[in-house]
Amino acid sequence: EPEVTQTPSHQVTQMGQEVILRCVPISNHLYFYWYRQILGQKVEFLVSFYNNEISEKSEIFDDQFSVERPDGSNFTLKIRSTKLEDSAMYFCASSELLGKGYEQYFGPGTRLTVT
Amino acid sequence: KQEVTQIPAALSVPEGENLVLNCSFTDSAIYNLQWFRQDPGKGLTSLLLIQSSQREQTSGRLNASLDKSSGRSTLYIAASQPGDSATYLCAVMYNQGGKLIFGQGTELSVKP
Predict the structure, then answer these.
(1) How many angstroms away from the CA of A2 is the closest CA of chain B?
(2) With helix as H, strand as E and coil as C, how does B71-104 read?
């Protein structure tokens, strides 16, 4: 069964460094999302992407964050200058309409640790 | 403000029991509602999706119901097993293709 994949599974970085989190959504999906989950807290929405542009972003998704779909298969989240409070599990998700009612499928996550 | 709440936060039951997890949402104008399972340190696995026009969905031992007017959904798990131990998350979508708003989850422990 098709699944969303994410790399790396764990990323450790120093404060102020740039990180890129990578996702490969399910191939026929058209809607793409990033969420994060700080340890012990709710899953929070960051950004959604459709038709090669951001369709919605949360207050968390400030100028330090950006997303790209560089080659039609990958979907990346970049954090330009990481802060300690960016430490969290980052989940990519994708969905389609046809017959699935926008059901979102999540990847296994990337655990980001900022030291 | 659109919020999702899940009760209880944690639940421990003996194997074989039937159980109900609750989810409530403040704005009843939802597009759909999804139930997920999350194992410790892992991703989210979609269990069931209910469209706003539907009253319930079933998959195996799981049954999810939706009462939009009262802003509630329940996830019923029949004949619970130790392998059902996980955190169960409820999430609502208000716009088609839009973001999911999550509850804080119910941590379920099924004892052998």
Answers:
(1) 13
(2) CEEEEEECCCCHHHCEEEEEEEECCCCCCEEECC
